[in-house]
C-alpha cells in the first residue's frame, strides 16, 4: 500500500474514537439562572429556611419527594441541574464525584468543587429596567444575571491564585447558564402588557443571555450549557390567569396557550442563533450546548402517558394547589398556603405548583439534555 493511502487509512480508523471523545471528568460546576435552577439562594436572601414565613418554597410539601423537607428548590424534589449520568439518571454532582451544588449565599461552605449562583426571580434584563417602568412584580432583590456574574467574579480569588491559575481551573469546570427570560416576560404580562409588547423585548433579553455566556467563555469556560425557556403557555398558572389576556386560543395538540408559546419559541430561536454566532467566534476548544426546555414540556403535554405522566391530569394540571378546576391553580390557594396539600403522587404530574416542574419532569428533561433529543448537541456527545 502506498504511504499516503496508509496514512489516510490510519486517520480514518482513528475518527470514531476522536468523535466519541467527550469530557466527563469535570472538577467543578458553576451554575446561574432563576428558580428553575436555584438550590437555595432565594430562601437565604429572605433569611433562611427557619425565618421565611412569606416564602412558600421554604415550607412543606416543597422537597417532599427526595429531600423529605424543603431544600430551597422550587419543586417537590430535585431540579434538572441535579440530574446527569451516562447510565442511571443520578444527581449531576454525584455522577461527577462532586457534592450537590451549594447556593452561593450559603455560609460555611466550600465552593472549590462548584457553586450555584441562581436565584428565584432572576431576570436577564437589569432590575432597573423594570423599576424605571413601574413594574410591581419584579423581585425586590437585585439579582439579574449580571449581578450573578459579579458574585462569580468576587468569588474567584478564593478559588484560584492567579489569572493563569483561574484559566486552567475554569477550563476543567462545567458551566450552566440556566433558564432566563421567564421572569422578564412574566413581569410584563402580570402588569397587563400585551403578549406582543412583552415579545418586543426578546432581542434585548436574548442579547443579555448571550453576553453572559460570552463573558464566561472569555474568563476561561470551555463547556457551557445554556438553557432556553419553557413554553409559557403550558404552565398551569398562566393557563388559569392569562387566557383572556392572550386571546384564549389553544394549541390543538397540547392544550397550551398558542400566543404565549409562540413568544417562547421566538425567544428560543433567537437564543439558538445567538449561541451559534458565539460558538463561531470562540470555535477553538469551546463547547456551547443549547438545552431545550420548550420541546420536552410540549411533548409531555401532547402525549403524557408516553412519558409516564397521568393522561387525564398530569400534563397541564398542577400537583400542589388548592383551587381545583381544570388546572388546579388559584393565587389564593397556592402550594403551602393553609389548607392546601400536594397531590398523592407528584411523579404523575409535569407541573408542581403552577409554574415550576416536578422532580419527575426534571429527571426526564435532564436525560434529554444528556443523550438527546433535548440538547444541541447532547451533553454526552462530542461536537466534532
TrEMBL record:
It comes from the Eukaryota. Gene3D superfamilies: SGNH hydrolase. Keywords: Glycoprotein, Hydrolase, Signal. Residues 1-21 form the signal peptide. One of its GO terms (molecular function) is hydrolase activity. InterPro entries: GDSL, SGNH_hydro_sf, SGNH_plant_lipase-like. Belongs to the 'GDSL' lipolytic enzyme family. This is GDSL esterase/lipase. It comes from Urochloa decumbens. The lineage of its organism: Eukaryota, Viridiplantae, Streptophyta, Embryophyta, Tracheophyta.
Amino acid at each position: 500500500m502506498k504511504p499516503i493511502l496508509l496514512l489516510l487509512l490510519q486517520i480514518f480508523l482513528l475518527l470514531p474514537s476522536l468523535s466519541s471523545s467527550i469530557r466527563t471528568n469535570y472538577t467543578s460546576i458553576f451554575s446561574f439562572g432563576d428558580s428553575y435552577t436555584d438550590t437555595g439562594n432565594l430562601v437565604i436572601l429572605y433569611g433562611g429556611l427557619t425565618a421565611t414565613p412569606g416564602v412558600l418554597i421554604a415550607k412543606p410539601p416543597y422537597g417532599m419527594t427526595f429531600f423529605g423537607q424543603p431544600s430551597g428548590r422550587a419543586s417537590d424534589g430535585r431540579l434538572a441541574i441535579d440530574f446527569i449520568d451516562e447510565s442511571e439518571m443520578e444527581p449531576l454532582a454525584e455522577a461527577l464525584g462532586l457534592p450537590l451544588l451549594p447556593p452561593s449565599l450559603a455560609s460555611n461552605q466550600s465552593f472549590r468543587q462548584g457553586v450555584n449562583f441562581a436565584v428565584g426571580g432572576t431576570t436577564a434584563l437589569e432590575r432597573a429596567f423594570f423599576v424605571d417602568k413601574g413594574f410591581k412584580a419584579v423581585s425586590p432583590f437585585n439579582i439579574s444575571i449580571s449581578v450573578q456574574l459579579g458574585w462569580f467574579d468576587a468569588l474567584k480569588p478564593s478559588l484560584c491564585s492567579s489569572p493563569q491559575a483561574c484559566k486552567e481551573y475554569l477550563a476543567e469546570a462545567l458551566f450552566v447558564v440556566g433558564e432566563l427570560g421567564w421572569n422578564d416576560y412574566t413581569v410584563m404580562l402580570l402588569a397587563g402588557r400585551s403578549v406582543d409588547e412583552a415579545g418586543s423585548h426578546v432581542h434585548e433579553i436574548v442579547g443579555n443571555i448571550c453576553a453572559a455566556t460570552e463573558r464566561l467563555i472569555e474568563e476561561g469556560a470551555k463547556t457551557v450549557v445554556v438553557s432556553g425557556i419553557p413554553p409559557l403557555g403550558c404552565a398551569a398558572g398562566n393557563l388559569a390567569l392569562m387566557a383572556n389576556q392572550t386571546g384564549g386560543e389553544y394549541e390543538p395538540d397540547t392544550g397550551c396557550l398558542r400566543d404565549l408559546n409562540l413568544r417562547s419559541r421566538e425567544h428560543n430561536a433567537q437564543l439558538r442563533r445567538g449561541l451559534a454566532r458565539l460558538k463561531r467566534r470562540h470555535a477553538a476548544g469551546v463547547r456551547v450546548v443549547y438545552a431545550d426546555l420548550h420541546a420536552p414540556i410540549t411533548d409531555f403535554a401532547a402525549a403524557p402517558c408516553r412519558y409516564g405522566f397521568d393522561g387525564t391530569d398530569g400534563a397541564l394540571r398542577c400537583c400542589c394547589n388548592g383551587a381545583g378546576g381544570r388546572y388546579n391553580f388559584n393565587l389564593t390557594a397556592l402550594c403551602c398556603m393553609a389548607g392546601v396539600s400536594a397531590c398523592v403522587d407528584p411523579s404523575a404530574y409535569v407541573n408542581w405548583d403552577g409554574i415550576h416542574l416536578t422532580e419527575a419532569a426534571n429527571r426526564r428533561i435532564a436525560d434529554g439534555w444528556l443523550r438527546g433529543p433535548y440538547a444541541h448537541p447532547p451533553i454526552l456527545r462530542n461536537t466534532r
